[in-house]
Amino acid sequence: QVQLVESGGGLVQAGDSLRLSCAASGRTLSNYVMGWFRQAPGKEREFVASITWSSGTTRHLDSVKGRFMISRDNAKNTVYLQMNSLKPEDTAVYYCAARGLMTNKYDYWGQGTQVTVSS
């Protein structure tokens, strides 16, 4: 089991920055891919970014490239999502998730943290 706890959400204005954190516990993460997803009201949950823990390889949703960056801190077992130049359309509940290297399915999810961007 992997337990995930997100933090760092809040209400900001367009153009501001936020950094989300996801603290992981329960297992060593060297065999996992960590991801950030988001779900806006009335919309399906969408992939935002991921990082392969062992290699540091990252992927980002096209619409957030250049604005968002996923990273990890090995010592703290924590994944971050740095979000810059926030837009109202970034408003959503953001979820941290984890999946094994050999699967495409994210099995572990955090409780989510609300990000609201006002115009």
What does this structure look like?
The protein is built from no helices and 11 strands. With 119 residues, it is mainly beta. The chain starts with a strand and ends with a strand. The model has no long low-confidence stretch (mean pLDDT 96).
Topology (SSEs and partners):
Elements: E1 3-7, E2 10-13, E3 18-25, E4 32-39, E5 46-52, E6 58-60, E7 68-73, E8 78-83, E9 92-100, E10 108-109, E11 113-118
Distance between the termini: 40 Å
Proportion of residues in helical segments: under 10%
Alpha plus pi helix count: 0
Residue runs with pLDDT of under 50 for 5 or more positions: none
Integer average pLDDT? 96
Query: What portion of the residues fall into strands of 2 or more residues?
Result: over 45%
How many β-strand runs?
11
Rg over CA atoms, rounded to whole Å, is 13 Å
Order of helices and strands: EEEEEEEEEEE
Report the biggest beta sheet as strand number plus sense, adding barrel if it closes: 7 strands, mixed
Based on helices, strands and strand pairing, what is the structural class? mainly beta
Shape: globular
Keywords:
119 residues; 11 strands; four-stranded antiparallel β-sheet; mainly beta
Task: Give a short synopsis of this structure.
This protein has 119 residues and is mainly β.
